[in-house]
Design a protein that fits this description.
There is one protein chain. The chain is an alpha+beta fold. The protein has four helices and six strands; from the N terminus they run E-E-E-E-H-H-E-E-H-H. Strands 1-2 form a two-stranded antiparallel ribbon. Strands 3-4 form a two-stranded antiparallel sheet. It has a two-stranded antiparallel sheet with strand order 5-6. Strand 3 and strand 4 form a beta hairpin. It starts with 7 loop residues before the first strand and ends in an 8-residue tail after the last helix. About 5% of the residues have low confidence.
Length: about 190
Amino acid sequence: MEFPDLGKHCSEKTCKQLDFLPLKCDACKEVFCKDHITYDQHKCTSSYKKDVQVPVCPLCNTPIPVRRGEMPDIVVGAHMDRDCKYDPTQQKQRIFTNKCLKEGCKRKEMMKLVCNQCHGNFCIKHRHPLDHDCKGAGSSISKAGSAAIMRASESNFRPAGSNKRSSNWYLQRNRYKLKCGYEISKTR
């Protein structure tokens, strides 16, 4: 053998392979081959010194600071014994609590959808008075719906062949002129 001092043997008990490019573990300072250099592969007992993950308390979900060299399990256990602000009486509140009052519907919504006539709470599918067979006072059309019907019933269109402008046109023109700062003339 020409170079008897060249290379080192892997420190893993089951391997002991002669490696000419050995790698040194930065946590335990032992020499390993390329197959056993990771902390998990050689079961490094000092890996917690280099592992810089921040543990989170399983009860209160707050990150727990861990100094180098400390075992994270011990620090989290100490936090749970002393500093944990977990309150078992405060469970997560349910988001979907507004149940639909339509018979046979079991849907729940995040926010209340109250009918204007019967003042019942309904899901999105049954929120309109016609969809839940509303028995409330008043008409089954909402204020916005009745306003839309009123606008549609007004004749905003000029009849074919007529050169007369509707009064609505003059109102719109005057509003525009006021908005732009023009002086409005009284003549048509």
